[in-house]
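JOB MANIFEST
job_type = single_chain_structure
chain_count = 1
residues = 564
[input]
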Amino acid sequence: MRKNQSVVLLASIVLSFLSPLFADDNQSANPEHYIGKDRSISIAKGREYMAVTSDPMATQAANDVLAKDGTAADAAIAAQLVLGLTEPQSSGLGGGAFALYYDATTKTLLSLDGRETAPKFVSERHFLKKSGEPMNFYDAVLDGRSVGVPGTPALLGLLHQKFGKHSMEKLITPAHTLAVNGFKPSEGLYLALKSDVGKLDKNNDTKTYFYENDIIINYKYASVLKKFAKEGYYIFYQSPISSNIINAVNKKNGILHQRDFDNYKVILREPVCDYFRDHKICSMGEPSSGAITMLQILKIIEHDPSWHNYIEASKLAFSDRNYYMADPDFINSPGIKLLDNKYIIKRRELLKQDKILDNPAHGEPSGWDKDLQHSNIGYEEDGTTHISIVDKFGNAISMTSTIENSFGSRIMANGYLLNNELTDFSFIPKKDGKLIANRIEGWKRPRSSMTPTIAFSKFDSSPMLIIGSAGGSRIIGHVTQRVIDILYNKKSLQESIESYHLLNRGGVTEAEGASNIVLDLMNMGHDVNITEIASGLNGIYIDPNTRDIIGVSDPRRIGTSMGN
């Protein structure tokens, strides 16, 4: 392409990107509400501890705990309880979470699965109309049948039991104080509320709570926190808290039962780890597709991490993700066989520098019966948040939590919103006569893309990068891009998080903004869509040479970093 043609093409890309951001406030394909990336980025530097969250009040709560010799677990609990109040569109006690926790004393990494579960007696036709056609997505979201048993309370409780140092009474104090005294909605919450008019305001309780007062006060939430501190997390799975949820959900076509709450437990799973540029990278395995998909991409392109190869490897990895990955307790998943070196070599051989992959098929790992199931893309969680924390003892936590859609099911109980996580299952149980791996089943956990990640220094095997993001199925690309940026391109954490998003989820490549990289990809034949891409990256980088701790929060949200 001649130079003047390149200039014209780049100009057209810029013009398409500069179209009005809020032409329709009620129409958004992005997580939460896109507020751009022009806000001043929050950066903090310390030597002892660091907390990074998507809300200033949550970050302050975590920082205060760390300053008083609390552990990373303590700080994460305090932050999450505040987030459930001040950022209810993203997460809360009515949702679920995944966490990676590094224990500096034992030098071990623990992976906690606090994903929501489906009711025991759910039917495979749960999201099908009488005609057999799948329900409209938002008809399902705004309905009791979308609500799964929450896992966040149990995950926070287990974190405290295993790694907590402060009393739960102290940890609930920041959230309890805000709930009783009230708080003014942040810019992020205000925009989310504005965007959700027509959904959240359809229920009297949520309309009154969110839209009729300038200052939000939540006495029910405060009461629940007091019970949590006094009696433990079990109270969330017993009456009256569980029965309040069951009643609220079942009034709207839900089928939750007390047995579903009695059965719930956090599952301790093996973290999924592999190497990229000699650094050990660990993240959350199934039912999250985050770790395996990210690590597949990294392993495929390790010897040549060009943008072209990154996009092509993403297509291959997402093809495997959509076909194979789901709750490993319910399917015969190939799991880490998808990271086997021989298998990775076969997938890498599909990359061509003069050819663009078009909807590549899933691979066939050794010993896997390809006729057992069928691919499913499915919907993904939009209402999500991420917490990254390091304490003065060397412990670290990377935790992503969610209620799925922004504001979840819009059903409220006990002072908090309930998830619509069951819409992360495939709405149809089979296709072309083959069962879909991520079909809904009783007590099964829906597939996720949450990718809480910890990368370790190749020098002393200590945590070096703690990172994660919001963003639905884009989370995988958001995190993978930053791992490549920092460990291969040697960008700083700030430079990396500020960089335009560029990713592929198996179809058209998505770019947040116009750049020479985008132009080069288009010249090669890539189909690139310039679009608004919200996220919620929150990361910590520990310099292996100086031991300086750098915290950075995504300018696309209102988060902050604090440390000492």
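[summary]
The mean pLDDT is 92.
The chain has 17 helices and 22 strands.
exit_status = 0
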